[in-house]
Amino acid sequence: MNVFRGFWKSPESEGKNQMKLLKNEWLQLLILAAPFCVVALLWDKLPERIPIHWNARGDINGYSGKAFGLWLMPIINIFIAILLGWLPRIDPRFKKTEGEAGASMARVFKIIRLVITGFNAGVEFAILAFALHYHFDMTRFMVGSLALLFIILGNLMNKVRPNYFVGIRTPWTLESRTVWLKTHRLGGRTMVAAGICMLLGMLVLPAKYLIWWDVLPISILSTMIPAGYSFFCYQAEKKNPEMLTEQKPNESL
Fold first, then answer.
1. Beta partners for 65?
2. Using CA atoms, how far apart are residues 185 and 18, in angstroms rounded to an integer?
3. Which end of the chain is more exposed for a tag (fewer CB within 10 A), N or C?
């Protein structure tokens, strides 16, 4: 009788699944586990009050208890990793992307998940450094980290295919595949340029001006330019209905 075949797995099958998980997700597991391990090893050396917030000048203006300040970010990071790993499974458009295109999209989603959780882990280690009295310019650290995040994600934008959760999702990109592809080509370049400008600003501007004169205006522009482009691109292509027909270009990345 094979009635319970779908509900029970042999120890050998479970072992193979675990090995496959370790092989495919070892870097993600390392990113998630490292902050927990470091905090546990340094727990007795850490003060009871932990800095968790800095103002635009880079001055500490917020503290919390040790447990809350050090465990919160790693726990949130686990939920973010789970969420980003789960979203492709419920996205109807992702499910329609098959073959090499689907595999490429899965790789892109994985890299995005690694980059975002890696960024959060870096913030956790910066908090740990401050807690241990290794002080540095937190504003420049955050701006530099954010700039690298923009550059990496910008390089991935051109490889993101239509879906409901990741990318530049305006009404016009979701309506037209062609507009999606054109917008993400521009959006990727815009994000890379924004990251480079943030890095340059980090090098030349005083720390107290970085947020208001560097990060904020550049972030807004890098968002508005592709969004506005998608609208005008869609309006232009409406005049040529053949351009709006569902196309099937080579999807391999």
1. 49
2. 38
3. N
